[in-house]
Write a structure and sequence with these properties.
The structure holds two protein chains of two kinds. By secondary structure, chain A is mainly β. Chain A contains no helices and eleven strands. In chain A, the strands form two sheets. In chain A, strands 2, 4, 5, 6, 9, 10 and 11 form a seven-stranded mixed beta sheet that branches. By secondary structure, chain B is mainly β. Chain B contains no helices and eleven strands. Classes of the chains: A mainly beta, B mainly beta. At the A-B interface, strand 4, strand 5 and strand 10 of A face strand 5, strand 9 and strand 10 of B.
Chain lengths: 116, 111
């Protein structure tokens, strides 16, 4: 079975530009979350979507937005890029939302974004 | 607020045992996860604890004490491939799909 896939794998942008990152969850998974991981830090939660609705938002500015499509894939958009947006962007999927069991989130390989 | 602390770096020798500690302060508790992350790769799930005690999975074990806000990951019979970052994460008590991660502990295993 294919795991979580993300595209592109690497991206270089300049300040002020915008970027769209894409994620396809594991087949059957309906919940998608996005995390930002700056070098040397743990992942920071950005968004969670379930059944095309936003279920959670982290402490990120409005320049960050996301959506989920009927096939449960998701896009993360970042406008007006800043140097500090350079990071590994991770997408994670899980079968359901609101689970309390061991069922965890499965992470994709990430998109490494460099803002110059 | 939520806060998770773990050591930044650790070193160990091949074949040895290493314990990576994690302390957390959260307004509620819904479970704690350990992930392994090799450089440039995605985090992969190692273990989950929601009740006090030790969970053993092969060479890896994870321990939880909810009253102390404390967990550790124990790695036995270390191998070179265990060199990676180990991330401690807790579920957000208000959104169980949100994981709150520590900064990670970078473990280097030497021959």
């Amino acid at each position: 079975d294919a795991g979580v896939t993300q595209s592109p794998t690497h991206l270089i942008k300049t300040r002020g530009q915008h970027v769209t990152l894409r994620c396809s969850p594991i087949s059957g998974h309906k919940s998608v979350s996005w995390y930002q991981q700056v070098l040397g830090q743990g992942p920071q939660f950005i968004f969670q979507y379930y059944e095309k609705e936003e279920r959670g938002r982290g402490n990120f500015p409005d320049r960050f937005s996301a959506r989920q499509f009927p096939n449960y894939s998701s896009e993360l958009n970042v406008n007006a890029l800043l140097l500090g947006d350079s990071a590994l962007y991770l997408c994670a999927s899980s079968p359901i939302a609101g689970g309390l069991g061991w069922e965890t989130q499965y992470f994709g390989p990430g998109t490494r974004l460099l803002v110059l | 607020g939520q806060n998770i602390d773990q050591p930044t770096e650790m070193t160990a020798t091949e074949g040895a045992i290493v314990q990576i500690n994690c302390t957390y302060q959260t307004s509620g508790f819904n479970g704690l996860f350990w992930y392994q992350q090799h450089a440039g790769e995605a985090p992969t799930f190692l273990s989950y604890n929601v009740l006090d005690g030790l969970e053993e999975k092969g060479r890896f074990s994870s321990f939880l004490s909810r009253s102390k806000g404390y967990s550790y990951l124990l790695l036995k019979e270390l191998q070179m491939k265990d060199s990676a970052s180990y991330l401690c994460a807790v579920r957000d008590p208000y959104n169980t799909d949100k994981l709150i991660f520590g900064t990670g502990t970078r473990l280097q295993v030497f021959p």
